[in-house]
Amino acid sequence: MMDWFEIRQVNRDLWMIVEPGHVVSWLYLGSDSAALIDSGTGIAPIRPVVEKLTRLPIKLINTHYHFDHVGGNAEFAVRLAGAQAEAPLRRHAPRDLLKRYIDGLLPLIADAEAQRAADADVMALTPELALRPFPAGFDAESWRPGGVAATGLLREGDEIDLGDRRLQVIETPGHSPDGISLFDPAHGVLFVGDTLTEGALYAHYDESSLDDLAVSVGKLTRLPAPVHAICAGHVARAIAEVSLIAETEAALKQVASGAPYRQGQDIFGYGLRETRHGRVWVYHSDGRASSFPLHD
Fold it and tell me: Contacts by 253-258 with C-beta closer than 8 Å and gap 24+?
C-alpha cells in the first residue's frame, strides 16, 4: 500500500504526499501539531504515511469535500472543513461517479505500464505524474470515499494554530461551494486545494460557479503578506509559481469575455468547454446540466 504514494520533502516542515496522477495531500509541521491538508482518495490508507513522517498530533483540514480529497478522513480524529462542506461530507460519492473514474483510469494505467516496460526511465523526472497500478487488495466495488462528518467547521478569518505556525482560513468557493484555502502569512505558504492548478481548472460542474471562482482568485491577489509558495491539490506542478494567481485571474476574465473555446471532456467522460490561457485551462460548462452529482 505504501508504494501507492510518492512522498517528497519540500523543506524541513513541509511534505508533499502524492497519489501519482490523482491528487496531492500536504503535511505541514508546526511545533505543537501538524496539519494534513486533504486526505486523498482512500484507495490506500494515508495515515501510515503520515505517521512515518511525524509523531505530532494531526489536524486534518479538507480544502473541499470532493471524493479525491476526503478518502482518508475516517483515519483521523480531528477533521476540519469549510462550513459549507458540513452536509456534503456526510454523504458518499455516487457509485456511478466512482465507476466512471476507475474505468477512465484503467487504460491510462495500462499505457503507463507499457511505457515503463519499454523504457524504465521514461517518467523518471516526474514520478508524481506516472500513474501506478492500484494496490493489491484494493476493491473498487467497495470503495466509497466520503460519508465522514467534520469535527469542526471553518469560516473566513479563522486561524488554525500549529504552535509556531498559524494557518489563516480563506473561503474560496467556485470549483465547489465549500472551497477554502489556507495561508501562513509569516512564511508565505499558500494551500489552495483545487482553486488554482496548472493545467485543467475544473469549473464545469453543476455546482461550480465561474463568478465565485473569479472572486476567490481575486482574494488571493490581495493577501496581507507576500506568497512565496503555492501548494496545489493536483499536478502538473504541485508547487506552483506565484504568478499562477495572476494567470488564473486572467484566464477567468478570458472565459467571462467569451473567448474562444474547444469542446472536450473530463476524466469522467462528461463534455465541457475548454478555454486555454497560458498554463491554465479553464473547464467550463455550456450552461446545460451536463455534469453529475458529486455526492449521494
Answer: 253/214, 254/282, 255/210, 255/282, 255/284, 256/210, 256/214
